[in-house]
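Posting for a labmate who doesn't have an account.
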Amino acid sequence: MFRRALVRLTVTYTIVQLVLFAAFAVGIYIFVTGTFDFDAAESDGAGALNAAEQGFANLRTGLLVLYAVLLVLIPIASFLMARAALAPLQKSYELQQRFVDGASHEMRSPLSVIQGELELALLSIRTPAEYERAMETALDAVGGLTQLTNDLLLLSRGAGAELKKTYELVDLNDLVRLDIDARASRPVDAARLDVHRGRDAAVLGSPALLARAIANVIDNALKFTPPTGVITVRTAVQDSTCTVTVRDTGIGMDNNDLKHAFDRFWRSDRGRSQPGHGIGLSLVQQIVQAHDGRITLTSQVGIGTTVTVNLPLRP
């Protein structure tokens, strides 16, 4: 598709430039010959008139030679211009295509689970317990699909002016406390969390989005940290920046993992055994950027990962 577009745009650029130059060359020649005083040349004798005619011939030859050179150079320049013009569109299209492919793949899995469970349930008469188990499995798949859909909607919101109009003062310490309290019902997770909250860390933002960002980072740390590991969650304020740091002692990431960690739907080979869709950190990054913040990631294989979120202190 883009190859045909590149050819068409190159041809269009070439034709437009050649037509404009031809018109410009003809205009120059007409202007020069039209403003020349032939009467004065005739009064000076045949030699002056012949010199003028030779000058006009040289002008025609020069314009034709230059036009011939442009016939070679302009298509090359047009090709380069067309490729430069289409490069951002091609990149955007490829990203969109990859996003759609990834979303379709991630949605297909839970839908297959739901379809399979319902087909098995209808295949023969089963006990109430078996029906209940099938419905629970299907409901879990629906929950995962709903979560994925919500994440995709959040990703599509971007960081527009309309979103920033909804911002309010939010204390990051409160968001961390609420997130940790919500995990108290899961003792295995709560036992691994070591929380250190600093002084008031008020920022201007969306409580729901910032809570989601913090939850995603902690979820990732819990997911890839063994039961004997520790996840340290720390908030701090320095100068005009509020910082939330989540450090784990999990499996860690290599350089290739770090390179793609924020790509949508990307999952490392070691992470594919864990539940998820590969958009958690991508969503966190977009939320942080929507709040004029910055997220950094450092990691070592077998040692752990540290995620640092920096947000501007309230103005």
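Reply:
Got it, the structure tokens are right above this. The mean pLDDT is 79.
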